[in-house]
Amino acid sequence: MDLYDVCVIGAGTAGMPAAGFAAERGLSTIVVEADDRIGGTLHLSSGQMSAGGTRLQAAKGIEDSAQDHFDDIMRISRGTANPEIARLAVDHAADTIHWLLDLGFEMLPEMPVIMYGHEPYLKPRTYWGADGGRTILEAIRPWFEAKVCGGAIDLRLKTQLLGLRAAENGAIEAAIVAGRDGERSVIRAK
């Protein structure tokens, strides 16, 4: 039975950053991925993101903020969006865009734009790269793989989550997985 500080299920859009930031904080980290490659839905998605208050907007003279973004979400959803989740997302959206740019994310030059795939935002705050989600993956991949190659992250590809085990207090304490050969193992994490 293996013991780690953090066990992340899935090496996709959320899993790679979660594992990478845990490893940067010195936590022993394992990532369990059912596929034979990292990236998850980034291989399929359009990779569209929205954020208010980015440096790209400022460079184009677009005045925007996380509050404006939040207000737009609540307007578009007609007040049905969970305000706590929406607030959490918008308050970190600009930093996420900046982090991706700092990693080398190749944004299309016309970004940000107003996108009309849903009721539009009032300001240009939607972003994506030329190759959709793969553009995001190509920015994150070197950062993530450096941590794997450096031993900060234990990456297990073709390893499927079979279930979770809870402690008596209800906290999840372990993941039951099956590896490439089908053999089951238990990964404990704090």
Structural commentary:
It is a single chain. With 190 residues, this protein is an alpha/beta fold. It is 34% helix and 21% strand. The chain has 5 helices and 9 strands. The chain has a 4-stranded mixed beta sheet, with no helix packed on it. Helix 1 runs parallel beside helix 5 and helix 3 packs across helix 4. The longest helix is centred in the middle third of the chain and has 21 residues. The mean pLDDT is 96.
Give the overall silhouette. globular
Average pLDDT reading: 96
Radius of gyration: 19 Å
> Per DSSP, what share of the residues sits in E-state strands of 2 or more residues?
15-25%
Q: Report, as a whole number of angstroms, the end-to-end distance.
A: 13 Å
Number of separate helices: 5
Physical arrangement of strands within the biggest beta sheet: 1-9-8-7
Could you spell the SSE succession in H and E letters? EEHEEHHHEHEEEE
The total strand number stands at 9
**Low-confidence spans:** none
Please outline the major beta sheet.
4 strands, mixed
Helix/strand structural class = alpha/beta
Helix content: 25-40%
Can you lay out the helices and strands and say which pair or pack?
Blueprint: E1 2-4, E2 6-9, H1 15-24, E3 29-32, E4 49-50, H2 55-59, H3 66-76, H4 83-103, E5 126-127, H5 133-149, E6 153-156, E7 160-166, E8 172-178, E9 184-189
Parallel strand pairs: 1-9, 2-3, 3-6
Antiparallel strand pairs: 4-5, 7-8, 8-9
